Structure to design on (1624 residues):
């Protein structure tokens, strides 16, 4: 049962996972959790420690992390959840729960989202030359790449 | 636990040093002093009291912290055998246990502790306002302060942090910060007087000073230095303009010197200053001035537009009024030599003739007509012939003055030629700017070559480019570049290139006055010249060029001349005096822009001599002065000195070093609250409404900044929602604190509850991780907070606090349901953790004691009071975070340890007060003396005190009445003693402050005069009259008369009271032979007291016999063996096994107990009892316990682990079995740690075994948190369950299954353990009630023994002489049990160390004739004093005077008024009432 937690704890960045005392600071400060409350770092850690390997690695949750590291910064026990997410993604691909293209696609999506953010802010503030049409076009082309 | 020492028992010192005077230090000191040791109590802050003094209410009883603590403060301050060394730090310790030598540094309070009466007058006059640390900086205090009104010693302290840089920079030492403070307070007269102490020409310096102070001002680093000069000018001009208000004729200090005549040559600033100083000392200074008017360069060198003549005249006249004489037009020189002056009787001469002429450069054309020189030009500019185009040579102030004066005299053009670049010019920057604005041209970096003239007319000045002004050593050495000639055209050239002295008086009969580099050679320290008795200062002696330099020389010369005439050493104490510069204070970094000074425009000023700079308005001056950072803290403005009527302020006080010999040292250095600034996400100090719990305590406190009104700091509005954030700086290795602070959960709940009590509408929410309410009665308090007070508890560690746009605070967290919680609060309170005091590491080094990994004092689990250095003991929060009861327990425990070390040396160094024989007043008519106190102006400011005294004289029985400035001062005490004898007074009344603090003092005074102390009565006309009726003088005076009148009415019937002392049996009975009883027995025996230890079972050890492991790794069985061996071999301990208590009778000092062993009955006589009867484990009825062999308790598991009979793949532990629910609404405190301990043991021995701990809140409080972390890291599963959804245990036949809902993952876990371990509640023994009844002591609702006071008397019972320790009191760990047992021993030792017991004198007594024997008095008495006895004529109540505390409850309750209380008899009280109604 403990095997899954042990496996993860061996990987660089995830060493402190067992220190977690489930305080929830990671989740409370997570921007993804604000929009998708199904994404719950505290719960994911608990599931790992309870050995729910397949449930975790199959879950779409592991792909949601925005890698802002707020959880890591806030954790009183030095559990770096953001790094644990990377470990989980690698393990999911290794174990065949996800295709290796997944990483690439997520990266494409991230870049597109950042672009959207930038253009959106320009639109709101009136800076730059972004228009709704241009933004829509960008989104479309991103979606096509996925 | 033995206390070994190299020092022989009889050589040890019977004195103890206690370091730190929070509640721990206070308690330890009282315990030690009361048991016969001399105590020195050293405290680094000005008052004893520590953090407890800052707290509002205390949990779980909601007593006011200060109310319960202040009697201890008073006791400590007044105790004959406690030397209170407040404001004192430990410097070093040498020696060994039994005989230490300690060096202490007593910091300077600048107030004489023996004279200060604490009246507070000084603080009212102090202008320095500082943030008040006591109120968490939510309010302000003064630089002279008392931390809180109940402070002990009750004296004020002046805080100084060093010499402020402004004052240090001023050559004359002008107290700049001082007058800044006075200007802020609009005390301009006082400011003027303060300036004049060092600067006799304030208006002059306010205009032309070189403002070295401003260059040094620390405000420079924030935005710009203060404009000190301009403020000085405002003060001077204001006082000149308001002579009636300002009293411009400053009262001169009458000197003590003789009337010797002193000659002074020159009436410039140096000469005037010296003359003024000498006149103030009583000399007769005469100034000889060559020119027609006095003032020197001030008059003849500085133009009118900078320093008008009338200003100078005004200030010189003020100096003349001090007795200085000036002879103008009288040059000292060939016609009037120094020798002639000496012949005329002058005893000393001060040469301050200045630079009276210009220095010549010797250039070609310098002597042409039309070439002028600066000094001569300025002396009489109107008379000087100037043309239309003026060239000025020079870059200093004189050059600029010459240029601007020329402009004003009508010059068409003015060009300044100077060697320096603009930035290098030595002239004042603003003067240069003014000159430029007036159209003056400055040609920088050019030097004069020659003046070109033709036919007696000047054509101009030929100049060369200046390559550099200074050489490599920054010496003046200009280099002019050849072949760069340029002619600057003009018809007048004025050289302002330096000044020189004229020497016409150097020859004396005692030799020639030596000259060096154009100046008189004078000693830099004394200003004495080469000729004895002749001194020189100012420019002529190289003062430094500024008027303020000359003034400084004037002061120096005056000191030297005074010493010279007195024949004293000229140098003594004047060289190399070390100066502590004040650091820049951190308290105020907010930008405050400087106030712009108005000035005449260039057009309005450049053609006339009107003063250019205008004076600040009053508002401007005050606003500018408010920018002062108060670097030195105290500004030494001397307002306190002038206001203090007790004459106790001494600004020259120095710190002292004290050396002491003590046998032992107790460290009670306390803790500090964690500073949450580094936790950026919480917004502390960024948002005004995020505060710490300590600040919130002050807000809740009635004596706090908001007088107890719950308000938020930003806008003073009552908050609607308050969030409490737990674990701020606790359980957080990221901020360096892995441990749990143990007290925050309870104090947060308490604060939430009290906030609700103060403001019913407020909604408190507590955000926590595990709620650790594991103390006695804490769980019930938590339940009440939830259910009765509606406090919300949310199990979540919050992620961040942000400012919401509309002013509230947004708290982000994950709700318990797993949803984003973004909640608005009006106020956020951070429950900050405890950490070692900032300087504790340093103190530990000085004491030579070790620290643990967290920086707290290192102690061992089996000797929780012993530091690593023998003879030094630790108590309170310096050895770990803990609450008040534990702190007090440890304090008593540590005093027991010291008592054991120094046993046999008791009463060797203590003082005993001797009183004269008592006068018999029984047949005398009342002769009442009344002393009415003014208390400085505390009472006199509101009440007409002499009128009260006059009124009292008219009352019947009063033979004497007077009013005193301070009735409590030492001289008045002596006076009262004399008057009692002189006037044969037999009753004394003091009408002053509160009996709470002062009654013992006055009782002592009358006793010293031979009166029984109970012939004294007090009337409170301060706290209950003047303080509450300020501004209503007539009414308050009337009330004061009535209050004193009532006291007189009572005093007529006062009678002497006595208490009959009772002998004490110096041995103890200890009931229970577990760890607590054994520890207490050993300590008492080590202290020299015989002990009977009674144990019902056939072995010693109690519950400890079942302990095999401890979290710390210590071996409990080995320990048990060791103490059993020591105990059974101790000569004065008798152990009774298989023995029961049959009966206990008697009272403190004299108990009689019947014990039985088998058929044998024995009666023991003893002076004290310690109850250590222990507790047992609850036998679970749930979770198949008893029905299934696989279900065991933690204790059984431990047994199996110790015998290696344990085998399991999976273990489940269920916590809180029988605790925190139903009839046992308390936490058993130790089970979480026990579960963690056993889980770790399993993981260590059988690493593949899976361990699940099912818990409700994990309560590994304090340093135990570390082991919880270790268990998690080792892979132990911690699964929380709710009390409503307990685990379900079933026997499936194939095995046990435990079903539990995992709240976090939302799934239900089904575990199949091989072993199921239960943590059963710890419950009191069945027969606790029987023991309680025999001892007449109470039990709690949970049937644990109930101590006298949960906070401050944690091991005492309300019945004297009976004490409690161990699990009988409440569940506790090994170290806590040991500490409590030692504490109980210490408290018992106080009684056993005395040969006799002196009960209260104010007790109740029964008129047996009236008494019906109804027994109501018995039921209301908390102390078991009354008893119904059968007499021949029926039942009556009898009061045991040894037990009575004089509370008066029985007298109140008695339906037939048969009970009367001494000191409050019916006649006494009724006459007081009649007097009030008259």
């Amino acid at each position: 049962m403990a095997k899954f937690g042990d496996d993860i704890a061996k990987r660089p960045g995830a060493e402190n996972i067992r220190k977690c005392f489930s305080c929830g600071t990671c989740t409370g400060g997570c921007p993804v959790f604000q929009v998708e409350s199904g994404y719950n770092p505290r719960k994911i850690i608990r599931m790992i420690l309870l050995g729910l390997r397949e449930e975790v690695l199959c879950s779409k949750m592991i792909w949601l992390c925005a890698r802002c590291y707020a959880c890591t910064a806030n954790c009183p026990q030095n559990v770096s959840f953001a790094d644990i997410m990377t470990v989980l993604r690698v393990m999911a691909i290794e174990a065949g729960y996800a295709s290796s293209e997944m990483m690439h696609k997520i990266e494409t999506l991230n870049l597109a989202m950042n672009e959207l953010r930038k253009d959106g802010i320009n639109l709101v503030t009136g800076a730059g030359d972004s228009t709704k049409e241009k933004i829509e076009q960008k989104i479309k082309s991103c979606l096509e790449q996925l | 636990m033995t206390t070994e020492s190299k020092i022989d028992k009889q050589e040890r010192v019977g004195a103890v040093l206690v370091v730190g005077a929070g509640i721990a230090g206070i308690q330890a000191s009282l315990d030690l002093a009361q048991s016969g040791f001399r105590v020195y109590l050293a405290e680094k802050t000005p008052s004893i009291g520590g953090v407890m003094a800052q707290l509002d209410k205390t949990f779980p009883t909601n007593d006011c912290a200060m109310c319960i603590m202040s009697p201890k403060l008073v006791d400590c301050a007044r105790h004959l055998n406690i030397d209170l060394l407040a404001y004192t730090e430990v410097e070093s310790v040498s020696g060994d246990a039994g005989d230490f030598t300690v060096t202490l540094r007593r910091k300077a309070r600048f107030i004489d502790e023996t004279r200060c009466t604490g009246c507070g007058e000084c603080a009212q006059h102090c202008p320095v306002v500082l943030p008040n640390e006591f109120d968490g900086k939510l309010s302000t205090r003064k630089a002279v302060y008392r931390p809180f009104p109940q402070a002990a010693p009750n004296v004020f302290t002046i805080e100084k942090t060093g010499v402020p840089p402004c004052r240090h920079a001023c050559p004359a030492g002008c107290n700049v910060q001082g007058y800044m403070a006075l200007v802020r307070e609009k005390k301009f007269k006082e400011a003027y007087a303060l300036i004049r102490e060092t600067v006799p020409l304030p208006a002059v310096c306010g205009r032309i000073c070189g403002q070295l102070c401003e260059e040094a001002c620390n405000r420079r680093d924030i935005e710009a230095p203060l404009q000190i000069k301009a403020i000085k000018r405002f003060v001077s001009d204001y006082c000149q303009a308001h002579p009636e208000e300002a009293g411009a004729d400053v009262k001169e200090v009458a000197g003590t010197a003789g009337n010797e005549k002193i000659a002074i040559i020159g009436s410039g600033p140096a000469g005037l200053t010296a003359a003024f100083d000498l006149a103030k000392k009583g000399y007769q200074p005469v100034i000889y001035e060559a020119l027609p008017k006095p003032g020197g360069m001030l008059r003849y060198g500085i133009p009118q537009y900078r320093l008008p003549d009338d200003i100078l005249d005004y200030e010189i006249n003020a100096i003349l009024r001090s007795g200085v004489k000036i002879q103008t037009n009288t040059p000292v020189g060939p016609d009037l030599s120094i020798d002639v002056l000496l012949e005329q009787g002058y005893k000393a001469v001060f040469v301050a003739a200045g630079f009276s002429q210009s220095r010549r450069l010797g250039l070609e054309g310098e002597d042409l007509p039309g070439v002028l020189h600066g000094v001569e030009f300025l002396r009489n500019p109107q008379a000087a012939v100037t043309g239309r185009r003026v060239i000025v040579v020079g870059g200093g102030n004189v050059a600029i003055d010459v240029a601007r004066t020329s402009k004003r005299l009508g010059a068409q053009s003015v060009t300044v030629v100077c060697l320096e670049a603009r930035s290098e010019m030595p002239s004042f920057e603003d003067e240069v700017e003014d000159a430029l604005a007036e159209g003056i041209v400055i040609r920088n970096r050019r030097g004069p070559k020659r003046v070109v003239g033709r036919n007696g007319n000047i054509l101009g000045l030929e100049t060369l480019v200046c390559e550099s002004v200074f050489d490599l050593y920054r010496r003046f050495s200009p280099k002019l570049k050849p072949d760069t000639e340029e002619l600057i055209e003009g018809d007048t050239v004025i050289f302002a290139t330096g000044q020189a002295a004229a020497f016409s008086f150097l020859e004396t009969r005692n030799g020639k006055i030596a000259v060096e580099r154009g100046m008189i050679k004078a000693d830099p320290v004394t200003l004495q010249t080469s000729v004895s008795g002749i001194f020189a200062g100012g420019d002529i002696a190289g003062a430094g060029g500024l008027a303020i330099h000359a003034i400084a020389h004037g002061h120096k010369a005056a000191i030297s001349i005074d010493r010279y005439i007195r024949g004293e050493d000229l140098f003594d104490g004047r060289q190399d005096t070390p100066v502590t510069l004040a650091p820049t204070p951190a308290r105020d970094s907010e930008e405050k822009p400087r106030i712009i000074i108005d000035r005449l425009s260039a057009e309005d000023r450049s053609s006339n001599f009107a003063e250019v700079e205008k004076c600040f308005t009053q508002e401007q001056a005050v606003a500018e002065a408010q920018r002062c950072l108060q670097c030195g803290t105290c500004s030494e403005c001397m307002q306190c000195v002038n206001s203090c009527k007790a004459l106790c302020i001494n600004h020259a006080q120095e710190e002292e070093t004290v050396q002491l010999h003590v046998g032992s040292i107790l460290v009670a250095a306390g803790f500090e609250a964690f500073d949450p600034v580094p936790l950026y996400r919480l917004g502390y100090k960024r948002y005004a409404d995020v505060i710490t719990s300590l600040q919130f305590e002050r807000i809740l406190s009635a004596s706090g900044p908001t007088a107890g009104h719950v308000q938020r700091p930003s806008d003073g509005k009552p908050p609607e929602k308050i969030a409490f954030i737990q674990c701020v700086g606790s359980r957080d290795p990221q901020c360096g604190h892995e441990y749990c602070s143990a007290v925050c959960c309870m104090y947060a709940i308490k604060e939430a509850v009290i906030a609700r009590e103060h403001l019913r509408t407020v909604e408190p929410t507590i955000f926590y991780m595990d709620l650790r309410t594991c103390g006695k009665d804490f769980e019930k308090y938590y339940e009440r907070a939830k259910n009765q007070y509606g406090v919300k508890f949310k199990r979540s560690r919050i992620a961040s606090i942000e400012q919401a746009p509309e002013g509230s605070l947004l708290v982000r967290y994950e709700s318990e349901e797993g949803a984003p919680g973004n909640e608005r609060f009006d106020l956020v309170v951070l429950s900050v953790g405890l950490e070692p005091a900032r300087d504790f590491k340093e103190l530990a080094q000085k004491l030579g004691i070790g620290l643990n990994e967290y920086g707290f004092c290192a102690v061992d689990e089996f000797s929780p009071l012993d530091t690593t250095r023998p003879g030094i003991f630790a108590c309170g929060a310096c050895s770990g975070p803990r609450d008040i009861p534990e702190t007090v327990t440890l304090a008593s425990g540590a005093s027991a340890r010291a008592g054991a070390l120094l046993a046999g040396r008791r009463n060797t160094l203590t003082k005993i007060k001797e009183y004269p024989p008592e006068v018999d007043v029984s047949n005398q008519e009342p002769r009442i003396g009344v002393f009415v106190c003014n208390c400085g102006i505390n009472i006199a400011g509101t009440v007409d005190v002499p009128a009260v005294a006059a009124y009292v004289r008219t009352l019947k029985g009063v033979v004497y009445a007077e009013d005193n400035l301070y009735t409590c001062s030492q001289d008045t005490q002596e006076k009262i003693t004399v008057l009692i004898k002189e006037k044969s007074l037999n009753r004394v009344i003091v009408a002053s402050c509160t009996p709470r603090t002062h009654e013992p003092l006055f009782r002592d005074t009358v006793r010293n005069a031979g009166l029984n102390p109970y012939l004294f009565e007090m009337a409170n006309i301060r706290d209950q009259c003047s303080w509450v009726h300020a501004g209503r003088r007539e009414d308050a005076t009337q009330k004061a008369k009535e209050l004193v009148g009532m006291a007189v009415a009572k005093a007529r019937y006062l009678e002497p009271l006595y208490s009959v002392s009772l002998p004490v049996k110096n041995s103890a009975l200890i009931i229970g032979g577990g760890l607590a009883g054994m520890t207490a027995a050993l300590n008492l025996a080590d202290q020299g007291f015989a002990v009977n230890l009674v144990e019902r079972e056939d072995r010693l050890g109690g519950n400890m016999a079942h302990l095999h492991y401890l979290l710390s790794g210590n071996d409990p069985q080995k320990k048990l063996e060791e103490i059993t061996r020591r105990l059974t071999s101790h000569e004065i301990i008798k152990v009774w096994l298989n023995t029961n208590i049959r009966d206990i009778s008697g009272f403190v000092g004299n108990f009689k107990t019947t014990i039985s062993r088998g058929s044998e009955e024995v009666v023991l006589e003893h002076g004290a009892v310690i109850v250590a009867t222990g507790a047992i484990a609850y036998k679970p009825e749930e979770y198949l316990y008893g029905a299934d062999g696989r279900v065991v308790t933690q204790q059984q598991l431990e047994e199996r682990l110790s015998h290696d009979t344990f085998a399991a793949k999976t273990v489940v532990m269920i916590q809180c079995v029988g605790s925190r629910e139903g009839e046992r609404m308390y936490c058993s405190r130790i089970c979480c740690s026990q579960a963690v301990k056993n889980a770790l043991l399993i993981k260590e021995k059988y690493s593949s075994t899976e361990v699940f701990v099912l818990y409700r809140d994990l309560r590994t409080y304090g340093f135990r948190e570390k082991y919880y972390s270790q268990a998690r890291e080792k892979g132990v599963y911690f699964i929380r369950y709710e009390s409503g959804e307990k685990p379900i245990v079933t026997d499936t036949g194939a095995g046990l299954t435990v079903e539990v809902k995992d709240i976090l993952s939302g799934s239900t876990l089904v575990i199949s353990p091989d072993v199921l371990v239960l943590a059963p509640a710890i419950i009191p023994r069945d027969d606790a009630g029987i023991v309680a009844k025999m001892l007449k002591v109470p039990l709690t609702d949970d049937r644990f023994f109930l101590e006298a006071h949960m906070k401050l008397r944690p091991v005492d019972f309300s019945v004297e002489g009976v004490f409690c320790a161990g699990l009988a009191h409440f569940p506790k760990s090994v170290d806590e049990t040991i500490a409590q047992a030692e504490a109980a021993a210490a408290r018992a030792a106080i009684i056993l160390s005395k040969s006799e017991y002196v009960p209260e004198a104010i007790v109740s007594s029964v008129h047996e004739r009236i008494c019906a024997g109804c027994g109501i008095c018995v039921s209301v008495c908390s102390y078991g004093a009354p008893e119904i006895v059968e007499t021949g004529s029926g039942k009556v109540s009898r009061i045991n005077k040894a037990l009575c505390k004089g509370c008066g409850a029985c007298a109140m309750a008695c339906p037939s008024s048969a009970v009367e209380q001494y000191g409050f008899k019916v006649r006494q009280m009724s006459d007081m009432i009649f007097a009030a109604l008259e």
